[in-house]
Amino acid sequence: MSEYHDLFASLKAESKIAGVPTTAESSAAYFLAKLSSECDPSDVEHDISHKVPGVAVIDTRSAASYQEAHIPGALNLPHRDLSAEHVAGLDRDITYVTYGFGPDCNAGTKGAAKLAVLGFRVKEMIGGFEYWKRDGFPVESGSSDAS
User: Fold this and answer.
1) What is the mean pLDDT of residues 48-60?
2) Residue 140 backbone dihedrals phi, psi, to 5 degrees
3) How far apart, in whole angstroms, are the C-alpha atoms of residue 21 and residue 37?
């Protein structure tokens, strides 16, 4: 019980930042783990525009939302429909990037989780489609043969 008291006492220290101890090693581990699971719109745009092999983008929103607008070249696999049968034809040797509407939508997270459980390498694009558009990156509309 004393260790909890000491921790809470340290939280009441003058600094709300330095009052909670950290190390370079724990910070590095945390941020590297975070980057292994997420990317941002500029990362995705870079790989798309440079035609980097081994990366594919998946829009995990509904088919109607995808048809309205989506990232060029993205596949539409709504997270609600993701199952082993729906992803049987996907390449297991590449990394998939999922996205939803924006920071207030967890469709990208749900899709990424399902894909990971099914054995795929996956990252989530933080900010979702909202931040993709906010950054001024191109969008397209309509459906694709893959959706």
Assistant:
1) 98
2) -135, 165
3) 25
